[in-house]
Amino acid sequence: MSDLSRGVRLGVDVGQVRVGVARSDPHGVLATPLVTLARDLTAAPDAVPSDLSQLAALVAEHEAVEVVVGLPVNLAGKHGPAAVHVKGYADRLADVIAPVPVTLTDERMSTVVASRRLAERGVRGKRQRAVVDQAAAVEILQSWLDAQRRRT
């Protein structure tokens, strides 16, 4: 991996309905929520879905040097149907944003942790559903950033 002190990373939480996006600061210390995108499930198979186009625009806008996508590994450490789905999404994203690398990282329990943290702050119900994907993306990216710093 390149020097973490250089460049913004985007963190992505891929859901069935929405995609949460977070960004890091240029020094790779702190992840913050960015946006929630609606999944485009109606795009033709040979077309780029609008959520992938929007992600590509965010990569360009923030001059991201890498995109970190949460891979939903089950508690036993296995890759189930959700992980296969996210891997396919990440592969399509990599094609759209090349040469910017897409990295998969274990996101076990990120949405649960994000939901709990939001609830602790008094964010519940519809308000929570509106931001939980961004909060999960923050959890994914922050965990990845922390792991990278521990390795160096």
From TrEMBL:
Keyword Transit peptide appears in the UniProt entry: no
The species this protein was found in: Micromonospora krabiensis
CC terms in the record's Gene Ontology section: cytosol
Keyword annotations from UniProtKB, A to Z: Cytoplasm, Hydrolase, Nuclease, Ribosome biogenesis
Keyword Cytoplasm: yes
Enzyme class: hydrolase
Protein known as: Putative pre-16S rRNA nuclease
Alphabetical list of NCBIfam families matching this protein: RNAse_H_YqgF (TIGR00250)
One of the protein's GO biological processes: rRNA 5'-end processing
UniProt subcellular location: Cytoplasm
